[in-house]
Design a protein that fits this description.
Blueprint (H helix, E strand, L loop, with lengths): L2 H19 L6 H23 L10 H19 L3 H20 L7 H21 L1 H4 L5 E2 L13 E3 L2 E3 L1 H24 L2 H11 L1 H6 L4 H27 L1 E2 L6 H14 L7 H18 L5 H16 L3 H17 L6
Antiparallel strand pairs: 1-4, 2-3
Length: about 325
């Protein structure tokens, strides 16, 4: 087994143990906040597949989260589908939408692709309001108190443990996130992952090597959107309510910030990126109570982080790993 594989498995095992034990050391409210970290992690993994590994910039992944969120809400409210079963359906619907968008997007790249995806994020709230009979319009869809929402009325028993809604949400979000993380790791370490990197590094060289740009670009969009759809489904379950404001335009930019902070083209740093975009705004609000000040604090810290860590937390971990390896192999002077 290769050293990189052993390190990846060890890292995942540590993450799994930390996720499993964390609720025992934090309050129910804090567990709910960390549930959102898992949701963001799932969305960041998908976005990094597209942007970090395939080189296709997207500013519209909040729209794909909205597709997943509304799919879950409609299935639960109108068709009586249990929340957990709506997650793969939401991923499939959003993935299909991403794949379809990837076809015309083949003609775009760079800033033009970013603007096209941003246009989707801008248009999505208006489209949601337009189909009021289907989406609830500006009023949205309420899920709180419905029997389809697990543990919302009474605790649920899982493997002998009684879980209230916050703890159930925590374990559900992180279970889906970790499964998605493993699937992405398996995808990216194989032939498809190598093709994605070839497209990112040089489209001309990729074509000359036999890589189909159309196939892998659309596949990357579909996979990335599927992850966003699953994250959107979890987001709808977590908020117990969806309306156009649940998935604002800023969400797409926040996700891109999380990927940049975590590290483009790497999965290992995305946990830090998810923690960053979940807790930094809350911390900035606690530090600065005056109007507008939290945004200034948030922006200043973001600039500082990107200045200190231009390659994100993944780059920091890589440098620390290289220093450790270098020290381990240093010859003995005695």
């Amino acid at each position: 087994m290769r050293t990189s594989t052993v390190k990846a498995l060890g890292t995942f095992l540590l993450l799994f143990v930390a996720v499993y034990l964390l609720p025992a050391f934090v309050s129910d409210f804090r567990a709910q906040q960390f549930a959102y970290v898992g949701i963001y992690l799932l969305a960041l993994v998908g976005l990094n597949v597209l942007t970090g590994f395939t080189g296709q910039i997207s500013l519209g992944h909040g729209a794909f989260m909205a597709v997943g969120g509304y799919t879950t809400a409609i299935l639960m409210a109108d068709h009586g589908v249990k929340d957990i079963w709506t997650i793969p359906i939401a991923a499939g619907v959003a993935g299909a939408a991403g794949f379809l968008f990837g076809i015309p997007a083949l003609r775009l790249s760079g800033i033009y692709l970013a603007l096209a995806t941003f246009a989707i994020a801008v248009a999505t709230p208006a489209v949601i309001k337009k189909f009021e009979g289907f989406t609830g319009g500006g009023s949205g869809i309420n899920l709180f108190g419905t029997p389809e929402l697990t543990a919302s009325l009474t605790p649920v028993h899982v493997l002998g443990f009684e879980l209230n809604f916050n703890n159930w949400l925590y374990y559900l979000s992180w279970t889906v996130a970790l499964v998605g993380y493993v699937l992405a790791w398996l995808l990216l370490r194989g032939r498809t992952g190598r093709a994605f990197r070839a497209v990112r590094d040089s489209e001309t060289a990729a074509v000359s090597s036999g890589v189909s740009l159309a196939r892998y670009k659309t596949l990357a969009f579909g996979v990335s959107a599927a992850y966003a759809g699953a994250a959107g489904a979890l987001f709808a379950i977590a908020t117990t309510f969806v309306n156009p404001d649940t998935f604002p335009v800023a969400l797409s930019i926040i996700l891109l910030v999380g990927v940049a902070v975590g590290g483009l083209g790497s999965l290992v740093g995305l946990v830090a990126g998810a923690i960053f975009i979940q807790f930094l705004p809350l911390w900035a609000q606690n530090v600065s109570k005056s109007a507008g000040a939290p945004a200034v604090v948030y922006g200043a810290i973001l600039i500082l982080v990107m200045f200190v860590l231009p390659t994100g937390f993944a780059g920091l971990l890589a440098r620390l790993g290289s220093l450790t390896t270098r020290g381990y192999h240093r010859p003995n002077d005695s």
